[in-house]
Amino acid sequence: MLTQGHRFVLTSRFTQDCFENTFSCVRSKNPVPTPVEFHHALRIIAVGQFLTTISSGRYQEDHSSFLADFLDTGEPKITPSVRVEQLMAVNRAAAPDLTKTEKCILFHLAGYIVHKIIKFASICEKCKIATEHHDESPSGDNSLLVDLKDFKAGALCRPSQEAFDFIHQIEELFRTKTGSSLMQLPNAVGVLEKKAQALSSRLPSCCGVQQKLVKRFIRLRLRIEAKQIKNDRKNYN
């Protein structure tokens, strides 16, 4: 240090806070994650970094709570200064109608979310029946993609009509609010969730299935939107 002419050294820069915080988020769901879980969690953290602006040079202060909230399915803490009216001002254009192909993709995503809720959330049998399609009758034209990917009968989850209709409403809401202005909001996840919770549904309210669907779908949809914005910027540059 003296040879190079430095007058002082910051020993705090020798810590590995960034690695410790990253791996603590990765291991928050499973202490010993599988390769697939590790890859999935790392991608979520990367998206979390992408969605927020770093305000300081210290990793300890660079929205580590935001990263933890991105992996947490608990009740989000919405910043008091952020109101739903801010979201309404982002884009007031009417939601475009979904094409037949987009509805098939949305049906596949809805089945994935319903499967996760049934598998990991504590819900009663009534809520399970209300969110998953159990009948042997066809699920309709929206299930064409699931039927194509379902090589083993019953391997993929199909959402009930009530669950799909509710997620369809959230998708329409999401499409009217997306854009670069949305990503610049301090808490885009919380603002979107608050607006989506006000949507009507025919799902049971005993186990909070509606809230669980909103939280999982909004986070999944934001990850897809962030990836699309990243690809668009990459292609533009």
TrEMBL record:
It comes from the Eukaryota. This is Uncharacterized protein.
